[in-house]
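User: I'm writing a tutorial on reading structure tokens. Could you give me a worked example: one chain, its sequence, then its tokens, then a sentence or two explaining what the tokens reveal?
Assistant: Sure. Here is the example chain.
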Amino acid sequence: VAADAAQLFVSDWAFAGKEEPAQVTEIPAAAGEAVMQLVPSGPEMATDTFYDALVTALYAARTHVACVTPYYVPDDVVQHAFILCARRGVRTEMVMPAVSNHLLADKARRGLLPELAEAGVVFRWFGGMVHGKAMVVDDIVAYLGSPNLDMRSFFLNYEDALLLYSPTEIAAVRGWIERL
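And here are its predicted structure tokens:
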């Protein structure tokens, strides 16, 4: 994953500078046994891999979903996926700031939250600004990264997420969310 991230950085740097990307020659040594996957996304990609992974995880959820996001302004598909999680009995929790640092995002989410609450989504309001982005689904997969749960992150911005599949790392993310 470190080598993939290094190569992604070099490629993005070259793209921004309109240069030919160099190859990363120094590959970091293996640092552990965790199973993880780097998932870049951006407007020039053929498919939006992060968005696809998010929607797939929500539809596959069986027991619980816990997520943290500073901004919640998803498209209809993601909104409905969260609603269906809660309606089918999946404990669905969202941690977000009561007031974020973007008034427009707060106003945009206002119309979406009552529908989630009615379906049974539990909100954990963070007193200050929380800018972390993470989600755990059934202790089987988790993600950390730059994507917010909003359409800009899904379809416009260049974002990177790290999907985690190892129990130790997933438990660490879940513990962090619970502490928030």
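What the tokens reveal: The helical segments are 2-16, 49-60, 76-87, 103-110, 113-119, 151-155, 167-179. The first helix runs from residue 2 to 16.
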